[in-house]
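To: structure subgroup
Subject: Chain for Friday's discussion

All,

I'm putting the inputs and outputs inline so they're searchable in the archive.
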Amino acid sequence: MKKKLLLGTTALIAAGVVVAGGVAQAAEEPISAGVGGYFRSAMGLVSQDNGDGEFANTAQSMALGNDIEISVSGSTTLDNGITAGFSAMIEGNGGDTGATGSAALDERFVFFRGSFGQIRVGQVESARQSMTAFAPSGNYNFGVNTPFFIFGNPGNAAGFFNVRTYDDGLGNEDNIKLIYYSPTFNGFRLGASYSPGDNNNGQYGGNAGDAVGGVQNNASVSAEFHQTFGDVSLGLMVGWEGYNLETCNAAANVQTCNDNPDSMQFGGSIGFGEWSIGGGYLESEQITDSTTGQGRTREDFDLGVAWWHGSFGVGLMYGQAELDDAGGLTDTFKISEINATYVLGPGIDVGAAIRRGDFDDATVGTGLDNQFTTVAISAALNF
């Protein structure tokens, strides 16, 4: 029923776009496209606990990494006031450990924007995730919640990669979606998204049947508030995202688990002059065992304070993640970091970070506990 209501609402929105614009006229100018993106590189020196760390005995003490993204985007405004456009991103070194180290085409979508708000269709993050509020940082190449340039090993590869207050890990982050953002009213903006499946494109046999452990009917709603009061700026957000589990195991008629995993998120920051402080929180019900349907609760939060003055930025951050394991115990990962940035010129900056991580496996005698210290430097070129 929820799916039918959402699809019906979508049809009404689309009809409203046509009515609001009247009969579409030719654009003053055709769509003009441009190229942008960034190239980031970093090097880290890592010291890990050789006594307990799962990977420490064979881990490298020095690591190098790249994060590359090239985006092609364009738009035009029609005579009826509606702006239509597109964005396509090419991701390089996007977590691929293979020979090429490239994730190829990443997020891509088309959009229509006007007095009604904005509608997006494409392979892109959900409304909840796109409206995430992070902990402020003095260097956004690093951080306690970044998916890049982590270098140190938490200790349990199957449980933690880093603290995350954005991606709940339950479905495909960039499955094809329909997204709507409302206009901003007195600082408030709403967002909603829906994806029928967990794939990047459902027209070529992607809807053939349920998959073991797969999710579908991915829906999210989110709200944010941004306002400035003199020298003080305030930003707040709240979001929810839910899924239907297709099947727990090979027998499609056997559902032994919670087949409606979801996540709840809060975040915010306050800025005053050159200072900002804030953080985020995400709680999610993880489905990790497709045989028994055993679910696990994961909680992540981050806090940060940052100072930016002209070309300089300094940040102090802390993050923590807790995950219930299969035995009902709770594994914990804690991470703290101090980082800094110096802007050399337009679009070019260098930075550094010192990070301390501590992973505690709740199961006694596993030898998975690990502590690490990382000293890292970075350079970023944005164009």
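Points worth raising on Friday:
The domain at 35-382 is CATH 2.40.160.10 (Porin).
The radius of gyration is 22 Å.

D.
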